[in-house]
Write a structure and sequence with these properties.
By secondary structure, this protein is of the alpha+beta class.
Length: 87
């Protein structure tokens, strides 16, 4: 069982989403605590060790998995346009 943690940056980015998108995104975090379901749109990022992308409509969630500590760290949350810059 994994634990989900947010960075201060990702909490701030989450609060900047529209209320409709927040309602869509929040239930997805609870699905990250167990082995990932095939219904989630998750892909491993290229050239980034242990970084993954979760797609929820136009919103992208970039997270990192620490297999040893069984932790999922949410690093960035934003709309699809510029989310991948600065990784």
């Amino acid at each position: 069982m994994y634990r989900v943690y947010f960075t201060s940056r990702s909490e701030k980015e989450l609060s900047k989403l529209s209320p409709i998108d927040i309602k869509k995104v929040l239930p997805k975090f609870s699905q990250l605590i167990s082995p990932f379901k095939s219904s989630l749109d998750i892909k491993k990022l290229t050239n980034q060790a242990d970084f993954y992308r979760l797609r929820v409509g136009k919103v992208r969630i970039i997270f990192e998995i620490d297999e040893v500590k069984k932790e999922v760290w949410v690093r960035k949350i934003g709309y699809r346009g510029g989310i991948y810059r600065g990784l």
